[in-house]
Amino acid sequence: MMQAWLDSETDIEGFREEARSLLASQVPPDEVQWLALARDDAEFTGTAPAGSPLGSSARSASSIVPASFQRLCEMVVLHQDPERFNLLYRLLWRLVHEPGLRYSAGDPDMLHAQQMGHAVRRDLQKMKAFVHFRVVSDGLQAPIEMGWFEPTHHIVEAAAPWFAQRSPRARWAIFTPRRSVECKGQLLHFGAALPRTALPANDAPDAAWAAVYWQVFGKQ
Question: Rounded to whole angstroms, how far apart are CA atoms 190 and 212?
Answer without folding.
Answer: 14
